[in-house]
Amino acid sequence: MALLLRSLQCASSPGAMSVSRSAAFLRLAKPEGAAMGICTHQDFSAMSSCSFYSSLAFGALHSSSSSSSRDNSRGGVVSKKKKAVLRPCSSYRVVVRGAASSSADVAGECGDSGGREEHEPRKMFTVTTPLYYANAAPHMGSAYPTIAADALARFQRLQGREVFFITGTDEHGEKIALSAATKGRAPKEHCDLVAAEYQALWNDLSIAYDRFVRTTEANHENLVSEFYNRVEANGDIYQAKYEGHYCINCEEYKDEKELIEDHCCPIHRKTCELRKEDNYFFALSKYQQPLEELLSLNPNFVRPSFRMNEVQGWVKEGLRDFSISRAAVEWGIPVPSDPKQTIYVWFDALLGYVSALLGDGKEPNIANAIQKGWPASVHIIGKDILRFHAVYWPAMLMSAGLPLPEAVFGHGFLTKDGLKMGKSLGNTIEPRDLLSRFGVDAVRYYFLKEIEFGKDGDFSEERFINIVNANLANTIGNLLNRTLGLLKKNCNATVLFDSASIPENNSLRKVTTESVERAREGYSQLDFSSSCDVILNIASAGNVYMNDRTPWSLFKQGGLASNEASQDLTAVLEAVRILAVALSPVIPELCSRIYSQLGYSKADFESLSWVDTQWGGLRAGQVMANAQPIFKKLEELEPQESNTESMKGSGKSVDHQFKQKSAPVTASIEL
């Protein structure tokens, strides 16, 4: 065996035998009547001494003997069966687009794939959510990243960018087939119902997506088959036997060291099944060095930075090949070369980001799909699927000769009682319940403002109510209401001065200008919490300004003092106008109501750009609408014990019901 390895060490890549660089030895499958073979660490080191770039001929080496390696899929034993195949492939290069760029592009020209398609300079900003698993109805854990992606898309549109916002559902796999069966439905019927629930919820949450993609669409299935064929033609797919512990909820084999007591998945807290299958594998190990270079040269490819550290740790441990087919799962896309097997749900679902870009009437192929909008500007995903997006997905794209996404942003978990919310755990917060009780503005604002995007955040209903009441009703709402009241009483609801006439050294103007720039920086970094904080500072400064200037007293004095008061109201209303533009990515409906009360039309609001955050937009002669509460304060109702039974299954709390009230109320919540 040692002699065989040494004779091959310059004929293949270091990762060609799908071994882990961190492994001390390779377990070999035992042929009939043979003793178990051992590959020593010294032999493996000798083979690994070949540079990834030193040979024009490298590929997944499939031993004609029954050799085996650790799988990929992160735990278990792989026994390879096919003969050795060496596919030519030129080196990959990692290109950083400019010194200040956070973008990464890995170009590959791989044998039969025909090389990377040529693109015009890309102007479109493409943002994606995960494609949500359609095993059950959406919960707040899936709504959360979608709200964030929507806010980012709205901000980029304000910046003048052409935006393509992709969301959708991942509809294949064992878990979906099981969920459908328990409800007495066919898998497609089940997926149709769940996808409709997602779309309805996104509408209720004011999610302005451009494309809702479903992985059961015929066009998507065509692209997946083409992609599989590309990767296979590049020598990166081989057949092997695999044995390991499988989590149905994760749709993933788990490494032994990841499992907790009783071989339970650490995320879903359910026992993983020990399975042995004959599957097809993707040669992830072949892309060890390109991925290391990608992560090294593009520090913003994975964000936040602590997520990048996690990904680099995984890669440094050594990449292992992973199974991309399932022999026992019928609900999926058939493997093109072996219809008895279906393509692994992740190898299928990730292509949804590409198939979503296919224009109407276009022939369903990859070349047409990536003509506009690819590579994606950012994938927004949960940290639990970071490995798939930051390790597997880039390597898959390299193999197919396609450009990589510019960035992957891994957000944290929403937790309840310290555990990740999830349908499988049965501890979800139902977004429809929150929407019916508190409204879309409160839900969007709280989750983006109060939870730092990227980190875990624990939901507290008491804090939810206190925050939205204090920020939206008291700080912003009362400022607008009191200012419009004074304007109507003393100026016939008409602005008497151009806001541009307010001196640049005016304290409120300075705070507003500085806050807007900081908010822009926050949005650009997906730091929605800090953007909300600095925009709220504008309203806080406006309230302080009103209290310091006391325009109600100045109006009583008349003459020049009355003119000063009118200018003060102009300054405050201009600050509120700018606040409405800057906060519109987070709470568009509330900001639209603000703009309406400032005398603007719906068309005016919908045509806004970030330029409108510059001071000077409010002009003399602008007539304001009558003051109305823009956010009605939340008030707790007494528990209704007599209705407990009737409310079960209604999606509403059986302990407390809430209403909204326009008058200031101090709520005392006991949870």
From TrEMBL:
<dbReference type="InterPro" id="IPR014758">
    <property type="entry name" value="Met-tRNA_synth"/>
</dbReference>
<dbReference type="Pfam" id="PF09334">
    <property type="entry name" value="tRNA-synt_1g"/>
</dbReference>
<comment type="similarity">
    <text>Belongs to the class-I aminoacyl-tRNA synthetase family.</text>
</comment>
<keyword id="KW-0648">Protein biosynthesis</keyword>
<keyword id="KW-0547">Nucleotide-binding</keyword>
<dbReference type="InterPro" id="IPR023457">
    <property type="entry name" value="Met-tRNA_synth_2"/>
</dbReference>
<dbReference type="InterPro" id="IPR015413">
    <property type="entry name" value="Methionyl/Leucyl_tRNA_Synth"/>
</dbReference>
<keyword id="KW-0030">Aminoacyl-tRNA synthetase</keyword>
<protein>
    <recommendedName>
        <fullName>methionine--tRNA ligase</fullName>
        <ecNumber>6.1.1.10</ecNumber>
    </recommendedName>
</protein>
<dbReference type="InterPro" id="IPR041872">
    <property type="entry name" value="Anticodon_Met"/>
</dbReference>
<feature type="region of interest" description="Disordered">
    <location>
        <begin position="639"/>
        <end position="671"/>
    </location>
</feature>
<dbReference type="InterPro" id="IPR009080">
    <property type="entry name" value="tRNAsynth_Ia_anticodon-bd"/>
</dbReference>
<keyword id="KW-0436">Ligase</keyword>
<keyword id="KW-0067">ATP-binding</keyword>
<feature type="domain" description="Methionyl/Leucyl tRNA synthetase">
    <location>
        <begin position="257"/>
        <end position="484"/>
    </location>
</feature>
<feature type="domain" description="Methionyl-tRNA synthetase anticodon-binding">
    <location>
        <begin position="504"/>
        <end position="640"/>
    </location>
</feature>
<dbReference type="InterPro" id="IPR033911">
    <property type="entry name" value="MetRS_core"/>
</dbReference>
<dbReference type="Pfam" id="PF19303">
    <property type="entry name" value="Anticodon_3"/>
</dbReference>
<dbReference type="InterPro" id="IPR014729">
    <property type="entry name" value="Rossmann-like_a/b/a_fold"/>
</dbReference>
